[in-house]
Amino acid sequence: MIKRHHGKNFTLLFVAGLAFSAIAERPRPNILLFFVDDMGIGDLSAYQAFTGIDDSVQIHTPTMDALAAEGILFTDTHTAASLCSPSRWGLLTGKHPWRRADVGHTLLSSKEKCFLGGEKTLPEAMQKAGYRTYGVGKWHVGLGINKQKVLTQGPLDFGFDHFFGQPHNPGINGSGPFIEERGFSALDADMKLLPVGVKGPRVKFTCAQYGQNYLDHFRKYASEVAAGGEFSGKPFFMYFSPNSNHTPYWPAEQIDGIQVIGESRTLSGESTVTKLAPLLDDHRDDQERYKLTHDSKKRGDMILENDVILGRILKWLDETDDPRYPGHKMRDNTLIVFTSDNGSDVRLHQNAERSVPAHGQLSGHKNTQFEGGHRVPFFAVWPGKIPEGKTSDLPISLLDLFATFTELAGTSPDEDAAPDSINLLPHWLNPDTAFSRKAPLITLGGKATPDMIKGEGGKDWISIRDGQFKLTLTKADFVNGTGEPVGLYDFSKTLVEDSKTNLIDNPEYAGQLKKMQKALKKAATEGRTR
Amino acid sequence: MNNFHDQTTYRKRLATGIFLSLLASLLMTVAQADRPNVLFIAVDDLRPRLGCMGDAHAISPNIDQLADQGFLFKQAFCQAAACFPSRVSVLSGFRPESIGMTGTFESEKVPAGTIALPRQFKQHGYTTVMAGKVWHNSNDDTGGWTRIRDDHGIRGGYSPGYQLKSNQDSVQNYLKSDKLPLELPRSESCEMIDYPDDLAPDGVIAQIGIDELQKLSQDNKPFFLALGFYRPHLPYTPPKKYWDLFDPDTLPVPNFNPVQNGLQEWSSHELRRYGDIPNEGDLVPGSEVFSAEKARQLMHGYYASVAFADSQIGRVLNELKRLKLNENTIVVLWSDNGFSSGDHSWWGKYTNLRTSTQIALMISVPGKKKGVESSAFVELVDLYPTLCELTGIAKPDWLEGTSFAPLLDQPDRPWKEAVFTTAHGRVPAIRTRDYLLTIHKRNKTPGGSSYELFDLRKDPNETINVVDNPEYAPTVEKLLKQYQAGWKAAQPKGMK
Lengths: 530, 496
What we know:
Chain B: GO terms for molecular function: iduronate-2-sulfatase activity; metal ion binding. The structure holds two protein chains of two kinds. Chain A is 25% helix and 18% strand.
């Protein structure tokens, strides 16, 4: 078993912080949101105490674990939806995606239509609050590319000062065009952007490969702030969104000289290829095509890739002087939030009761309405401000980041912005003080895929939490907040969602069911929950 | 008005009763297979704060479902807004006008030879079983039951369900006497403890109900199963999970203002029997002794208790369905009276106002219309004749109610013009669609009247006694005539 250890430098930092506070007031923090893709709660060894996964099949994520130990680890965090696009849209707007008929469960990968614009966005709010805002990685909420193939609506139109990344996931043959600032064009074989309209080769890239760029934006920030002028004194908001560990599983060979391929290990020190892959090797209809992108032998290395990149970023933050906080390194005043856009895509192995290595005891997986679809890893670290070594079981939502980050920036969301976002800062700063998130936690399922077991979720599915209870509905009417209730679970007893644990037909819980139906109706008809 | 003290009538009735029961025993062997069972559910002090009655705050899904599968009476009234007399009236078939506000069926005011409803069924070949609060006095006509199941209630008719030792101890003072000496330690009005449903008396009653249905389904006799649930009667002791269903800040706040120009004397507050309630002073927010928080807690407790009772009732109804007994079982759910949660500055029942006298009443009858909501005036005393008619039992001639079985076939037919209720202190009242008139013996308004008149068209919440307004003099006169003509005259046409 891994033990949650205390950050080594914490006391020193704290003392140093106190000493300097007389000299230099701690400025507003930088914010790094490390927002990974399709990572299950069992994919992170920091959650071993929660999932109970055995050392022999628990993948080891040393950097993530060490960082999590410096802050609060949340065990009941939910995405807006069990699939990338609506989850990301929800995080960026602080609004439930089902409130918009054209967002809902949809994959927002259109090149012709950007799905932002009707709502105020988190980067806009941060920009307004005086932050420099950077985005790296997967976008996935639609782009406005006109007939001349020119980007008319993209990340820079919604609050990012700089952006580099991809519009959506790479396909089976590799990646299409990239977004760089206001440009949208193909990469050449050396990962350089070609002129608009020039067709480039298909590249089988990963986050690590386009990032010589993974530190580019951090360096860009450092030079911008050093240049002074309008940028001086501005903290950064970094939306760092690698495509790992989404399929296709194409991990980097090595990053900055650190070998990745073949290096991922379980906690007991064995190769994930031999120990984990056989357990993850699910079966789907389209086996041949599937093998090209879903080779389970490489999945462990995808997780390791993020762990390594996170380590490189932490190293840079640890080593770089903070120009706004004399005598301190960047790391000393950077709030880091680590989370994932939805649960793992790993399906139930035909011989396994549950796909434990990716989901722990949670039922389901990405695209389902079960916990495995939308309960994700989440931790928040801010040296000297957020207490270290804490675990919180407060139910929270990724929608809350909007209000929490804007509060950190010293402002609040505009009245007409982020209707479903709750400021969690009081809880982060004082996790032992009573805090209640006074808004119902609501999550959407994903898109039903042909290989999914009937009843797992998909279009028209929604769930709502009330304390320990979860209600799942299908045939949802999102305007009126109604639907056919199909699942009622009491998580104070077990997190498993199946026919044995389902209380939906139990008259003792009919009152609880009614209460939650009312809450959903209220959330839908009032247009906001905050 | 009351001719039951005539000895000849007594004997006739007794003879008729014996004859009918003999006849029934003969017919029984032939007809019993077809006769429906009866599941008779009494809920204590349930003012219809129910989803099916349009209360948006209430959480009562199981009762709502029963209403949806049967016939819901949205204008049903008890005859006396207190447990004892109301239940004696229902089960004897008499009105308080005839037998007084009696606390027990054994009272000499109830004519000899009167056969109570359970015994009626027993004599007609039914297995009759009771658990919980059916009679208020649990010793009433015990021979009417094939068996009485022990619900472990502390005392028949009152079962607080406390989980805390301190409350279990102090409630003993309450149980010693109906007039609690206020200087003794008193238990709390509310207890919010996390405990399993089955530890509560109502949980036990639900378990008994389930167990009995399983047994009775194996029997070849029809059954009359009576279950009496104790909540939402005070004290409010449902398990915490039912309190957690509500945000008290969003629950309704009653109009605490007393009735303007009112005559009812508010002397004995039922609520004062509890230790967290002051002995003296106004029990309205803003008074020196009572807070808005306490009022909110009591309102919260009431809604939580309704949700809890609903849940227990749901367990029984679910078992009825599981055993497929619902296909041949009449289910009737009723409450003995309403409850005033601070309305008119009054905590309790006992009045003629709607808050005290309007009750929950719904019936599901196999083969009859489902999902019907009726606004016909019906009275609790109608239950006895209705159940007789629906099960083919001849209606005894002393009954003072009207079977509403015809409404089940023809919901739109014209029905009663008025209902009659009696409040504490023998204050009778007549309620029509447009007016409520209460008749007092002692008190008089400043205008010298001994009546209260509420114009329900303008004042549906019964806040102002307008009797001193001379414009209403003809109305009062008309209502008094209607009152004197009595319940028989108010019956639907063709039944007078």
